[in-house]
Amino acid sequence: MLKEFRAFIARGNVLDLAVAVIIGAAFGKIVTSLTEDVLMPVIGKIFGGLDFSSYFLVLGEVPAALKGSTDYAALKKAGVPLLGYGAFVTQAVNFLIVAFIIFMLLRTVNRAVALFEHEKARAAEEPKAEPADVALLREIRDELKARPKV
User: Fold this and answer.
1) What Rg do the C-alpha atoms of the chain give, in angstroms?
2) What are the tens digits of pLDDT across the range 66-77?
């Protein structure tokens, strides 16, 4: 069983998947930072200083120590049931950014593959011109064959 597991891990697909997961996790952090630290503050500023992360509805009892609090993280940590639609909007923007980047990446790859296939087909269609010295040697050979044998 250990040998089979080692063979499974040694396959290129598994290693490629592991690298993709690691890069994906790092990419996710970059997109999250882009959304939370760059885009959402700009969107909030455009719409009059709105902070989407503070949009929520309280669905249950709030502890006495947190009465009147608008700190989503503190209320959530205290176990208060909340409907955090502002956090949802932020995650939806994250998703749209990731989806757009993946779309652009796949679009670029598809164009590159199409270009490669086109070049490959064009190279197969056009026979290469033979070098001048090969053509000259071929003519000499044909002339020698055509001469009468003595």
Assistant:
1) 33
2) 887 778 888 888
